Amino acid sequence: MDAVRNGMAELRGEEARHLTRVLRAEAGQRYEITDSQSAYLAEIVEARGERVVFQVIEPIESQPLPVRITLCAALIKFDRFEWIVEKATELGVDRVLPVETARCEKGLLEASRKRTERWIRIARESSQQSRRVRSPEILPAVRFDRSLATEAECRYFLEETTAPALLRILPECRSYADRIAILSGPEGGWLDAERQAAAAAGWQPASLGPLVLRAETAAAAAIAILVNAWLAGA
Length: 234
Description:
single chain, alpha/beta, CATH 2.40.240.20, Alpha/beta knot, seven-stranded parallel sheet, five-stranded antiparallel sheet, 7 helices
């Protein structure tokens, strides 16, 4: 939904076709809609093919996310990376930055450029499912060294059990304006050179527990811990 003007909103293209042809939407039905700024309860006044027109009934109060998280996620097989995008969106990340690391499969960085639009669509659909007002930003993939320049007040490099627990190194004072970055690793883990580069760039190593987690599990677990820590402490 691009915009709400004078109490009216219009949906076109693939999403409109899905409503009219798959969900059999028709005039009089009510939906929750968003223009990426606010959420509304709206009623369909026209539904034909690739065009659905809504009339806004009332705004819906939406809760702000407790912290702005950038997930710097190592590129893994694309079906599993899509899972990361979907779950990271549901959990409340602000941005997703795909990262090529030393142990990523060859060719994933270049191939990712053709996948960005799909990831954006997955994030948008996941946002709708989880009632987010705004979808996270899906950034173009970068190499590991460039990801280390990601700006944030707190930056955490997900490690195995030798690192301190993530919960133990969070700042005591937290606010909704805080920016957090998480760097999650690839299948097979980090090289020592990558660990050293992250430490030199100011990233804090952090563990998620005594077990070895899959890449996508680690990313989701870290996001959940941070969002709940900020909800409790902001």
